[in-house]
Specification:
single chain; mainly alpha
Length: 85
């Protein structure tokens, strides 16, 4: 998956969470996790992802879908866009 494809998928998933389509958003989120893991595994700077992944996990545990959406769309997307793989 290319950087642009992954960030488009992150944005789409964030939109689903914001629209309250939790079922569809969570299903898509589960698919994204595998893609993000592969992206991080190929990254030269794996440590940079830890704070963002922690934020995602915390938001998911709280069921704070807006925070999860914001973290996906803004923080994770920015990190992926600025990381060389």
């Amino acid at each position: 998956m290319t950087k642009d494809q992954l960030t488009a998928l992150l944005s789409d998933t964030a939109s689903l969470f914001r629209l309250g389509q939790e079922g569809k958003a969570n299903a898509q989120y589960q698919q994204i996790i595998g893609q993000v893991q592969a992206w991080i595994a190929a990254s030269k700077n794996k440590e940079a992802y830890m704070p963002v992944l922690t934020q995602l996990l915390n938001a998911q545990e709280r069921k704070d879908w807006l925070d999860l959406a914001d973290t996906l769309e803004y923080e994770l997307t920015a990190l992926i866009q600025h990381t060389d793989n």
